[in-house]
Write a structure and sequence with these properties.
rod-shaped
């Protein structure tokens, strides 16, 4: 009994023991226990960071470290879809604009080429009028008849053609080369009135009037070198200059011989000047036949076949066979007969020149019409394409955005 009671007392003491093996008494002292555990203090509920409210569009955004609202990776998904659809339309609009701009520029160049072609036709016509005025004036002015009706009529015709030339020249605006040639021509034409007052004056040197007129119409023939729009136009421009040069040389021969017949004798300068003009004419013919288009060569041969070259050359030989200072009329040579023979060839050459000029103008007008038509077609096609693309883009974009909105609403409901 005593042993049993003692055991219960031991057990009772064990149960009442407030410590367990391995646990020190400092565990019941919080400050000491904290020191033993590393002085850890749980965070206070008041210091916890606030919870960010839920963003309804969070599922549409991509996490990023940038705060710029315009950054590409901060765009909403519907915005990106619309941008993806619009970019091809914008690119197509840019390329269509470039194509339309190119067509418009080509049309402007064609319009400028047409104006240059019209100016060239006026220039060659004016050069022909000056040649006729010089040659018609040779006989009466050399003999002192300064009020000849033929001279007045020739000068009136030249003035009329000159007005048309200046009218066409005023239409040239942005072509520096052509404007420079216009200035050169006007510089020489400024002295036309003075030249008329003193033309074929006996006090002048024998060839002064002929050379002065030649210098006046020489820049006018050079307008043909500015015909450079289109392969046919360019080729015809060079060939036209050769024809104009040959005709001018033939006109010089007519003037020189007519002046000699008006004086009834050759000077020592006349044979050399005539031979130089003949050589230049032959060179121009060779240049034309070497570089002209087949249809222009055919026009030239068909037209010049009507001329009487034998009569022209025979008369020229008869004039040059008379020694300078001897009478030409005594040799049976007549100014009227010579002028008729020489004018036949020049008039035929003028037909060739005018025919080629009209073809050049027609080619330039055709190129201009084609360029304007292409510009209209390209512009209309570009506008239609952009309109259709924009309509399709808007339709598909709205469809995609609506699909994304439906998907988002479904996700929120879930």
């Amino acid at each position: 009994m005593g042993l049993s009671r003692q055991g219960r007392e031991v057990v009772g003491r064990v149960r009442r023991k407030k410590t367990v093996p391995g646990q020190s008494a400092e565990a019941h002292d919080p400050p000491k226990a904290s020191a033993v555990r590393g002085n850890f203090t749980p965070p206070s509920p008041a210091k916890r960071p606030p919870v960010k409210p839920a963003d309804d569009d969070a599922d549409y955004r991509v996490p990023t470290g940038s705060s710029s609202r315009f950054a590409l990776h901060n765009w909403r998904v519907p915005t990106r879809l619309v941008a993806i659809a619009i970019v091809p339309v914008v690119a197509g609009l840019i390329f269509a604009g470039l194509r339309v701009s190119s067509s418009i520029d080509f049309a402007r160049q064609a319009d400028e080429a047409e104006r240059v072609a019209n100016l060239t036709r006026s220039a060659t016509t004016l050069a022909h009028a000056l040649q006729n005025e010089r040659d018609v004036s040779a006989l009466p002015l050399t003999r002192g008849n300064r009020k000849s009706p033929e001279v007045q009529q020739a000068r009136a015709n030249t003035d009329r053609v000159l007005a048309q030339f200046r009218k066409d020249a005023a239409k040239i605006e942005d072509n520096d080369r052509v404007l420079a040639r216009i200035q050169a021509a006007e510089t020489n034409l400024y002295w036309l009135d003075s030249l008329r007052k003193n033309a074929f004056d006996p006090a002048l040197m024998p060839l002064a009037t002929q050379l002065a007129y030649s210098e006046m119409f020489r820049p006018l023939m050079q307008f043909t070198n500015e015909l450079g729009f289109g392969s046919n136009v360019t080729s015809r421009g060079r060939s036209l200059y050769a024809v104009s040069l040959a005709k001018a040389s033939s006109s010089t021969q007519r003037c020189l011989v007519q002046t000699a017949l008006a004086r009834d004798q050759l000077t020592r300068f006349d044979p050399v000047a005539v031979q130089a003009a003949v050589t230049l004419e032959q060179t121009a013919y060779a240049e034309f036949l070497a570089g002209a288009l087949p249809e222009d060569i055919q026009l030239f041969k068909a037209t010049m076949a009507q001329s009487n070259d034998l009569a022209h050359d025979r008369y020229m030989v008869q004039v040059l066979s008379v020694r300078p200072g001897n009478s030409l009329s005594a040799a049976g040579l007549s100014p009227a007969e010579w002028y008729k023979v020489a004018s036949t060839e020049i008039d035929l050459m003028r037909k060739v020149e005018l025919g080629m000029t009209n073809r050049i103008v027609a080619d330039a007008q055709e190129i201009k019409a084609d360029a304007e038509r292409d510009a209209i077609i390209n512009g209309t096609a570009a506008l239609l394409a952009v309109a259709i693309a924009a309509l399709l883009t808007i339709t598909f974009s709205r469809s995609m955005v609506r699909g994304m909105a439906t998907l988002r609403a479904s996700a929120i409901d879930v």
